[in-house]
Structures are given as C-alpha cells and as structure tokens.
Specification:
alpha+beta; two-stranded parallel sheet; 11% strand; flat
Length: 73
Amino acid sequence: MEPSLEWMRDLNAIVNLASSESERLGLAAMDALHVAAAILLGADQIVTTEKPGKPIYRADTLRVTHVAEVSLS
C-alpha cells in the first residue's frame, strides 16, 4: 500500500487540538502540532524519529511508530 499525502489547511483546528493534546499528554509544541494534524486528517499512525519513551509516544488516538520499525518492502 502506497502512503498518501494530504495537507491539513485548517490551522485554527490544528492549533486548538494541539493545545488540548499538549496539555492532556504533556507534549512539546511541535509534537502536539504533528499529532493534531494527523488526527484531524484521520491518520491511524504517525512515524517519528523520536526515540521510544519520548512524550510523543503518549499519543493515544493513533499509533506512534519509530522510523526504524517501518518496513519498506
């Protein structure tokens, strides 16, 4: 299955959800923005270079996967 690309253009929605996720999960601003955009786009997974154990892995509305765990086959 090929990944798809879609832009999230509703910046107010992203910022509002990111603020909520940041407060709820203790995420840094950039991680919260990425998680919020992914949620609003309906993603079920986000791939990150952050090492396991970092706060972004607290996201509970989608699966967080380290890039090293992604199979390219």
